[in-house]
Amino acid sequence: AQSVTQPDIHITVSEGASLELRCNYSYGATPYLFWYVQSPGQGLQLLLKYFSGDTLVQGIKGFEAEFKRSQSSFNLRKPSVHWSDAAEYFCSLNTGFQKLVFGTGTRLLVSP
Amino acid sequence: DTGVSQDPRHKITKRGQNVTFRCDPISEHNRLYWYRQTLGQGPEFLTYFQNEAQLEKSRLLSDRFSAERPKGSFSTLEIQRTEQGDSAMYLCASSFGSDSYNSPLHFGNGTRLTVT
Predict the structure, then answer these.
(1) Residues B76-116: tens digit of each pLDDT
(2) pLDDT > 80? residue B45
(3) From the candidates A30, A38, A44, which should be mutated to test the interface with B, based on the most B CB atoms within 10 A?
(4) Beta strands B75-79 and B88-95, pairing class
(5) End-to-end alpha-carbon separation of chain B, Å?
(6) DSSP state at residue B75
(7) B31 touches chain A (CB under 8 A)
(8) Taking the C-alpha atoms of B40, B33, B22 and B111 in order, what is their torsion angle to the nearest 10 degrees?
């Protein structure tokens, strides 16, 4: 079965603190993974992608993600969160021809 | 690159009415996708086009839904005899690619449909 699980519905982080959003996937072949961010009422913006090679990938806005095949995980991290990072974050899996399977999302709240 | 444009941004309709949404992809992109996002969920794939050909439709796309991309540029998504369960955000995305795994999607801001 092809699926993406984001176990945390909401996460609250203090501004300036570090962030890690969890993502686990289930897929029978080599996974092609993405993280997207969505602000209220907006579409999705690509943060970063993993296709192959280096398991630590860098993205925009200071985000990075680490692919761990043994744990079927692709967690998103940021060393220091800014108030403007408050949004909903979606992990997704490409099942071919960009037919993405998305997780249910994690809403990030940033406290002052 | 003016981005993916969707029209209208919001649509309120009564149950049983027909609605049509439009998507203008990034001009050089040959692939166009429709996704649906309900409250509290991630987007779900509906259908996609490569140029003017509709190559795949999800089983989520009932017979009341039809999508077209007549000249390989803009696309329309029509829902006939709308039901309250059709209330959702309809997202369009485009990409340029010749293989199945590269070329990440660029999403529009969506059309939010409310069926009363």
Answers:
(1) 999 999 999 999 999 999 998 766 666 789 999 999 999 99
(2) yes
(3) A44
(4) unpaired
(5) 36
(6) E
(7) yes
(8) 10
- Bridge pairing between strands B75-79 and B65-68: antiparallel
What pLDDT, on a 0 to 100 scale, did the predictor assign at position B103?
A: 78
Mean pLDDT, all residues of chain B: 92
Nearest CA in chain A to B98: A97
For A104, the closest of B40, B91, B97 (CB atoms) is B40
Closest alpha carbon to B32 in B48, B13, B53:
B48
pLDDT tens-place string over residues A10-66: 999 999 999 999 999 999 888 899 999 999 888 899 999 998 888 999 999 999 999
- Subunit contact B104:A90, Cβ cutoff 8 A: no
Q: What SS3 state is found at B110?
A: coil
A vs B: CB pairs below 8 A? 69
Q: Mutate one of B100, B111, B112 to test the A interface: name it (highest A CB count within 10 A).
A: B100
